[in-house]
Amino acid sequence: TFIFDSDELYVKAKSYGVTVTAYLSALLAKACLNVQEIQVKNPKWRKPVKIIVPVNLRPMFKSETLRNFVFISTPGVDPRLGEYTISELCGIFTNQMKLQITEKNFASRISTNVQSEKSMILKLAPLFLKNIVMKLIFNAVGDRTGCFTLSNLGVVKLPEALENHVKRMDFVLGAQTYGAYNVGVLTYAGKANINIIRNIKEPILEKAFYDIVKAEGLHPIIEGNQR
């Protein structure tokens, strides 16, 4: 867990002219690029770095559903095209997310999914078969569409009666089935907590992320279960 002063993180993101989510996406993408540069010596064999960013659709479609109502944006870069600075990554990720996160784009994708549900073949198929097919589809195009998920819940506020009793909140995603990492972000009581979960032993991404954060002049408190 990287614990940032939320104001410091916000000011740093605004110095690049981007949101906190876009800024963190850029930093994490840079960490992935740096790791890949060390592990894959030949640039031709390096793979694109994409971050899966869930988008809350409730405000966009005026929904008050209590269930998750999200779609994903997958901004990314191709390391085979050359090196990227933090500033470049901030601009690229912001522009890509602006293009992807639009009502028309998401409405089109939702419509495609709804149309497939109306198929008579799917309606008549037994549930166990649907579960198998959906599992195969998710394995093919779910987590594998990006390196990991970066989900930012934003600023969380509690009712005044609870604030004095809650000192801290964290947002920890489950580990991926095939990927090594997932990242959850939550801001509460002036602290932005970035929770990185992994299903491998070595804290590879965390170390690369720390080096970048330090170079950016940020001063997070770091907690973990490994010395």
Brief rundown of the structure:
With about 230 residues, the protein is α+β, with helices and mostly antiparallel strands.
What does this structure look like?
This protein is α+β, with helices and mostly antiparallel strands and 227 residues long. Helix content is 44%, strand content 19%. The protein has nine helices and eight strands. Strands 1, 2, 3, 4, 5, 6, 7 and 8 form an eight-stranded mixed beta sheet that branches. Strand 6 and strand 7 form a beta hairpin. Helix 2 (20-39) packs across helix 4. The protein is globular. The mean pLDDT is 89.
SSE topology:
Blueprint: E1 2-5, H1 6-15, H2 20-39, E2 49-56, H3 58-61, E3 70-73, E4 76-77, H4 86-100, H5 103-117, H6 120-124, H7 127-141, E5 148-155, H8 160-163, E6 181-188, E7 191-198, H9 204-215, E8 221-222
Parallel strand pairs: 2-5, 5-6
Antiparallel strand pairs: 1-7, 1-8, 2-3, 2-4, 6-7
Helix pairs in contact: 1-2, 2-4, 2-9
Whole-number average pLDDT? 89
Overall shape: it is: globular
Distance between the termini: 13 Å
Order of helix and strand elements from N to C terminus:
EHHEHEEHHHHEHEEHE
Helix content: 40-55%
User: How many strands appear in the DSSP assignment?
Assistant: 8
Low-confidence sequence ranges = none
Count of individual helical segments: 9
Rg from alpha-carbon coordinates: 19 Å
Query: What is the beta-strand fraction?
Result: 15-25%
Class based on secondary structure composition and strand pairing: alpha+beta
Biggest sheet features: 8 strands, mixed
